[in-house]
Write a structure and sequence with these properties.
The protein is of the alpha+beta class and 387 residues long. It is built from 13 helices and twelve strands. The N and C termini lie far apart (67 Å).
Length: 387
């Protein structure tokens, strides 16, 4: 099932039996639905791709460690999916189902549950039964302590989005009808001295108006015969009548759909619509309000289930680095990188890593540097620099 089918199922829009997201055979209602569907797809894809760009850092003894857990969350969670594919599916289910269940298999794979039954308890672990992953249903019971379980909100977003889709479908249909009425062709056919009771005439009349004129209007270049006694003319357009207002209405509906979806998922509309102005500020806002909270949910749940309290106190936990979401170019950001290295925030190797470059393995690149311009408060009170 592709992502478009997933959205239709969640928002109660029935797909065709043989689903094809780019098939021209969609009904008018489904085509209108695509306006909101595209906005939803764009928002979910933005969050999923942003989370996929984050590095899932496994920390052991308060030091970065690359082992099996690191590989699973950063490259291949299972045999069938990459990190991007896995997180796109996971975040789609988390937002539309309002919850997400991930199980670990005996051979150390991470699988997303398509369906399951959950039994809640006040003090003991909740249990999950009839867990189905990739058309396979487990007969065993999973306890909450052995799965990754996330809940997005205290309310289901899918119901609110369903009502929104219905509203925008109706508005879009009205805008399309106004556009078609304004841009459509209209003509007047005048008959003189014709016998409308004659059978042959009625057949000819139906042929001309029902088929030939239809082809004439639909064709880019066409000729239609006008018989003796017939006169065809097109009424003059009303003064000042254009389709600009109708097109503007459709564009406003599109912008409203993107803004509504963006507000629901805490993403600035400029990100979804691709507007270049204020994009940097919008990106910072989107990361802080849409990406970071979901990253923290994953971070806390993975630490709780994979490590636990005792291991966390020893310095073992999962850290999701969301600073990698924004693209950093080493040349254009040279001054900022220099300042970060000079102040001891980043090592040269770490700075290379943030620029998506292969970190230098030399010992000097792993060290942290602080220039003499930076002093402690004790040194300032003593006066002068330490030698």
């Amino acid at each position: 099932m592709n992502i478009f089918s997933f959205f239709r199922r969640k928002i109660k829009a029935a797909p065709q039996e043989n689903d094809n997201s780019f098939d021209d055979s969609y009904s008018a209602a489904e085509q209108r639905f695509r306006l909101t569907e595209l906005a939803l797809f764009t928002a979910i894809d933005f969050i999923a791709k942003s989370i996929a760009k984050c590095e899932f850092v496994t920390v052991i003894d308060n030091k970065e460690y690359k082992g099996l857990e690191y590989y699973l969350w950063n490259y291949a969670p299972n045999k069938h999916q990459t990190k991007v594919e896995f997180l796109t599916q996971a975040i789609s289910k988390l937002i539309f189902d309002n919850e997400l269940l991930i199980i670990s298999t005996a051979d150390n794979q991470l699988l997303i549950a398509d369906s399951y039954c959950k039994t809640e308890y006040a003090v003991f672990d909740d249990i999950f039964t009839s867990v189905t992953c990739r058309n396979f249903t487990y007969q065993r019971t999973f306890s909450e302590s052995e799965v990754i379980y996330l809940k997005y909100n205290s309310f289901a977003l899918s119901g609110l989005l369903a009502e929104m889709c219905t509203t925008y479908e109706q508005l879009m249909m009205s805008a399309q009808e106004r556009y078609n009425e304004a841009a459509g062709h209209k003509g007047i056919v005048t008959f003189e001295n014709f016998n409308f009771g004659d059978k042959d005439f009625n057949e000819t009349f139906s042929e001309i108006l029902g088929k030939q004129f239809k082809k004439y209007y639909e064709s880019k270049n066409a000729v239609i015969p006008v018989f003796k006694g017939m006169k065809y003319s097109e009424p003059a357009l009303e003064a000042g009548k254009t389709t600009n207002s109708e097109i503007t209405d459709i564009q406003k509906l599109r912008a409203e759909a993107y803004a509504t979806v963006g507000n629901a998922l805490h993403i600035p509309p400029a990100i979804l619509s691709g507007e270049a102005s204020m994009l940097s500020d919008a990106m910072d806002c989107a990361i802080a309000n849409a990406v970071d909270p979901i990253a923290q949910m994953f971070e806390q749940e993975i630490t709780k289930k994979k490590f636990g309290n005792s291991e966390f106190l020893k310095g073992n936990y999962m850290l999701i680095d969301t600073t990698t979401v924004k693209h950093i170019d080493a040349i254009s950001n040279a001054n900022n990188l220099d300042k970060s290295i000079a102040s001891g925030v980043l090592s040269p190797a770490k700075a290379q890593k943030y620029c998506n470059m292969l970190p230098c393995e030399e010992e000097w690149a792993q060290k942290y540097y602080i220039t003499k311009n930076y002093q402690t408060s004790d040194e300032v009170l003593k006066g002068g620099e330490t030698q």
